[in-house]
Amino acid sequence: MNISFVTPGFLFALSLIAVPVIIHLFNFRRFRKVYFTNVRFLKELKEETSNRSRLKHLLVLFSRILAVTFMVLAFAQPYIPAEQGKKIAASTAVSLYVDNSFSMEAVTREGTLLDVAKKQAASIAMAYRPSDRFQLLTNDFDPVHQRLVSRDEFISLLDQVKISPVSRSLTSVLSRQADALGMSGAEEKKSVLLSDFQTSISNFEQVQMDSSIAVAVIPIAAQEVSNIFIDSCWFTAPVVQKMQPAELNISIRNNGQIDAEALPVKLTVNGAQKAVAGANVNAGNSAVIKLTFTPSGTGWQKAVVSITDNPITFDDQYYFSFLISENVPILSINGARSGPYVKALFGSDSYFKLSEFSESQPNYSSFSENKLIVMNQVVSISSGFSSELNRFVNAGGSLVIIPDSASNLLSYSECLTSLGMAPLTGFIRNEERIESLQLEDPVFDGVFSNAGKVTEATDLPLVSGYFVSGNAANTGDVLMKLRSGAPFLTRFQKGKGTVYLFHSPFTGSLTNFARHAIFVPVMYRIALLSEKHQTLAGFIGVDETIDLQGVSVSGDEVFHLINESNNFDIIPGHRTTTEGTLVDIKNQVVLAGNYDLKANDRLLAVPAFNFNRSESDMSFLTADQISEALGKYRLSNFELMNAEKAEIVNHFSQLSEGIRLWKYCIILALLFLAIEVLLLKFWRK
Question: What's domain 228-312's superfamily in CATH?
Answer without folding.
Answer: Immunoglobulins (2.60.40.10)
